[in-house]
Structures
1.
Amino acid sequence: MQSKKRIFLSAPHMGGTEREFVSRAFDSNWIAPVGPDIDAFEQEIVNYTSASYAGAVISGTAAIHLALMLLNIEQSDEVICSSFTFAGSVFPVLYGGATPVFVDSEESSWNMDPNLLESAIKKSIKKGKKPKAIILVHLYGQSADIDPIMAIAGRYEIPLIEDAAESMGGLYKGKHTGTFGRFGIFSFNGNKIITTSGGGVLVGKNSEDIERARYLATQARSPAVHYEHTCVGYNYRMSNIVAAIGRGQLSVLDQRVERKRAIFERYRSALEEIDGVGFMPEPVWSRSNRWLTCITLNPAKIKKTHEELRLALESENIESRPLWKPMHLQPVFSHYPAFTNSVSETLFQRGLCLPSGTGMSDDDLTRTIDTVRSVLKRS
Ligand SMILES: *Cc1c(COP(=O)(O)O)cnc(C)c1O
């Protein structure tokens, strides 16, 4: 029998007003994938992020799929993807049968390396096939170096989709991640910085794009009483109840970012004195939401591996998780082209995400820190 309370990696954390929003939606009987809370949630996302337009959907993955369809990605097309990410940012490329081309990370941000990106584009062009889109991930809440990537995307006229699933509330040069490219997506899955239990949003610069996304996401129904269909549709629209939860969550997002950053600072101040412990960087041009605190263990200085540390935490009923396994190493993607430099592989071999839930108490944090210190100091 485990007697110690479970500490989760990043558990949902309601702000308090969600229940009221949901109650009101019930009282008005808007239990549907249309309704006033969807409209209001979309508007509040636009207000918060300064994105131009927003369409709420059932998941971040669905939002990426819609963005790819809006860019007319076809089976013969290539789409450049960050390799160091969660698979949800790549699967939609395969839904339409297109080919992902993986690009590795730079050390300074752990996100897409602009030089490797350009090599990948050049190689594709040489083969006579310019990539049709770039899906750029902002990992663990930390933005990629967007300016050089936008410059390359602009030079080759390739549209950019920002996968900001993990980085809502995070900034690049003072502006919200997800608002730079033609499209951006956010996720409200259960462990993200804010959650609706499941959900996502597509943001974009053109109103026609987002309108078409809404159309595709509601079974492509053309306005006719009998429902006229001229293309394949999807059932991707967010429900009004889910949007009601989102409105409450969005109202506490700033507090969540502050708390995530404070959690990171506590880990850093407690662990940085241990020789060989590293932290996810935060370049001066960015402000991370610090969705998850990520540490690395340098094997030349620390004998314990990240897996041994994970197991030691688990035996204390504390959840932690290795950094994302790079997509180019995943069996399902291993036969696709990849431009690598060993940065993501090395991080995967060394890194661990520590519990970072904003609902975690200071005592939970102390318990986690004490465990990590005692394991590593014995090392
Ligand atoms: C969570 C996540 C997604 C997928 O979002 P869902 O809402 O779970 O579909 C995509 N990309 C990244 C980087 C993610 O972390």
2.
Amino acid sequence: MALTLADIKARPREEVTFTIECSGNTGLPFFNGGIGNARWAGTPLAPILKEAGVLDSGIEVVFWGTDEGEIKRADEVTFKQNFARSMSLADAMDPKNILCYEMNGTSLPADNGFPLRLIAPGWYGIANAKWLKRIEVRDQRFESRFMGRDYVTVREEDHNGETVWAETSVGRARLKSAPARVTHIGSDYRIVGAAWGAPIDRVEVKIDDGPWMPATVDGTEEAEFAWKMWSLDWPKPSAGEHTVTSRAIDKSGNIQPAMSDPWIAKKHTYWESNGQVTRRIQVS
Ligand SMILES: Nc1nc2c(c(=O)[nH]1)N[C@H]1C(S)=C(S)[C@@H](COP(=O)(O)O)O[C@H]1N2
Ligand SMILES: [Mo]
């Protein structure tokens, strides 16, 4: 099935506000800004797959981008390949996935995937393939640099006392928050930040080694996949360096893990890092 951009734009339109986080956004000082929120518009993917006629043997959907690079595998096999990411057929058929041609009310910018990208709400950045040129259904699990070599999380897991090392392809977004900035008017300081990755119940903030304090979470934005902004007043901090750490708690009661939590500490690659983010603040 071949579709022009005009064909795709003529199909039913769907919008979603979705915060995309790069799975490499560690929260460590060298990379903590790899995230952004936008209003994306496009047409649902599932009806197109259905119209194309997926065979019973189809299990995996591959999204190919126009960007390409040289691949050199550990076994020395070398070749040129376009960017490619895949999803199981069940994940791809999620009615929330859209083939997106608009960002914040304007044509998708070149950097963000013009003419067309996948928007897969609830997934880390890498799943949201940009510059799409082909979508195909295959009857085998698909491996590529961006499925099976890069964007692979290596985690040491405890299974009833036995250590199991698991290598998994980066998947769905995880519960996370971060302090974004500290503002002040005179001596009245305020910490503002964001929380995302799961339905947010509340956010708590710790200054230096003090107790966790409840932040005020902005209740106006009800979009399921959009980050929530939060703030905490910080009256009259003493001069000098302080640390500010936040943790999000989701509606099921899960708490964003500390960096020392085994979930983070026993993860040996930097992908999918949803540990608590600590920022350093200089008050003068
Ligand atoms: N074709 C293609 N799609 C891609 C990528 C890429 O390199 N090529 N990078 C991915 C990664 S790692 C991220 S974090 C997001 C970034 O999306 P943005 O540029 O709209 O923020 O795009 C994803 N889609
Ligand atoms: Mo990324």
